[in-house]
Amino acid sequence: MDLYTRSIEVVLANQTSHGAYLASPTFSTYRYSWFRDGSFTAYAMDLVGEHDSAERFHEWVAATVNAREETIRRAARAATAGDPLTPTDVLHTRYTVEGAAVVEDWPNFQLDGFGTWLWALAEHTVRSGRTQSEPVRTAAGLVAEYLTALWARPCYDCWEEFPDNVHPHTLAAIYGGLAAHQSTSDTDHHGTLHEITALIESEVGEDGHFVKFHGADTVDASLLGLAVPYRVVLPDHPTMVATVAKIEESLRSGGGVHRYCADTFYGGGEWVLLTCWLAWYYLERHEPDRARDLLSWVESQATHEGYLPEQVPVNLNDPSCYRPWRERWGDIASPLVWSHAMYLVCESSRRRTRDIVGT
Fold it and tell me: What domain range is 290 assigned to?
């Protein structure tokens, strides 16, 4: 089975008529659309030439955002005044495919997905050669306003945990998004970008690597985003190289990559999308052999249907937590559309490099 072709099929099959990408069609908690997952998926679609698919997602995001203009304005006013935010003052992190907020209790105050959307939108604009529609430009401006006002606030991280911290990965996603918005609009974000960079650069542990959040001395695999794709630092920056070395040392006990050392979600297994993310980093470092080894592991995790799961329950951080999660939510999500998207990001890059060098 050609997992590259199959991954495109899986992504397109899970894009609804509204333009939203389902996170996972078989996992009840994930039958919604996240801006974070969807933005990476739209980027993957642009890389493989499916620009119409990416554009439909961006138009769906724009409609979803524009319908909440008053929420965004209210949040910005509260943040500017230094007032606390209530649950009604923030955008949700996941929506129904029709663009409605999900009413179930959920860790909604997450900022990284909105930054990722601005980044992916700019990539789409460049790669597709298409002009942004007026609703999309309006939504991008609203999201940029929202992030500019709220970026320094503690919020849930990309794993929807630790809400009392400011997370370097979240800051990096906001940085990448605002930098991208600046490049495609007439808005100047230099002041905010400088402040974000300074704060991220201060989050370095004693061993010379970026840390999961302030006060910690551990890494999180999502720190890969600081270099790829958000470019707060370059992939070969000494602190980034030290961070990746720490990820290799502490988060790879087998072929795949764990989220972080204390992760107990489904026991804390090896994540397919993070293994792809590490491969993406090595491709950016021009180390194709290391990337190929990681992608070979990813390909070996595909089911006979060609589905990639969220994680694989091997080398668990805490095996005692696997069964309780399975009893609560069922089997691990498979397919996870984000996993397929990250594989496409890596494999499309690897194939382009191979074609250029002729090997």
Answer: 3-357
